[in-house]
Description:
Layout: H1 3-17, E1 25-28, E2 37-43, E3 46-51, E4 57-61, E5 65-67, H2 80-83, E6 91-93, E7 97-101, H3 104-116, E8 121-125, H4 131-142, E9 146-150, H5 171-184, E10 192-195, H6 202-207, E11 212-213, H7 225-234, H8 244-249, E12 259-260, E13 268-270
Parallel strand pairs: 7-8, 7-9, 9-10, 10-11
Antiparallel strand pairs: 1-2, 1-5, 2-3, 3-4, 6-13, 11-12
Helix pairs in contact: 4-5
Amino acid sequence: MTFCHFFYFCTYSLMVMRMFKVxxxxxxxSYNNDTVFKIIDIVSNNYILKGIDMRLIADSxxxxxxxxxxxxxxxDLNDEVTKRFDRDDFFYLPGKILHIDxxxxxxxxxxxxxxxxxVLAFGVCIKEEDMxxxxxxxxxxxxxxxxxxxxxxxxxxxxxxxxxLNAYLNSSNFIDTxxxxxxxxxxxxxxxxxxxxxxxxxxxxIKNGANFASSPxxxxxxxxxxxxxxxxxxxxxxxxxxxxxxxIKKTKYKESGMGGIxxxxxxxxxxxxx
Length: 274
């Protein structure tokens, strides 16, 4: 290699190395660029990635990354209930939400979604393994109508079958938290619980007291999916049942990612509006 070739190689390498930095949005070529990530750390030549839409942590070598410049994270519930709020003689009191999340970034994003639809929501960021110990005090303080329990989870096929709780990253922590919440309020209508994250043990979460849960097909779910379900329940009138199929269809991967049982709405409607 001549000096000129060596200089060109070094210059090109430096240009490539500088293409990506922490907080850049990227996709991975080896996965057909199917998921948008944010670079959260760079260790040697290994890039640590965090899903923007998916509750997912991954890593990647430099040569597998593609810069993403056209990402759009907007979401519209497109719900007839919200459309009539400002144009009739009634006033509306949506159900109050307590959102417990193992990831502070995803929690912040969910809280912004609740705020967009004028739903009163309180968020607490707690490590998944600590949720079961702290849930009671937050329930007593907030007295919510709806409880969201989420964060990070995963199903590892190599560790066991789908019905083996030891094959999951955090499903046992979510289940224990649901159990503690049900000690506080046994009624599925007085306290609606939405629990789980990517790949969670759906059947066990429902069996132990959740109204809605992830993930029936053990797939990754959208970061906003638990919040979307919570919003729909919060904005459904208290004398009506939530349309299960409709609320599930509003989530990213529909019945593959979320499921649930017949659940009543939590919104009071009053008259007259002043």
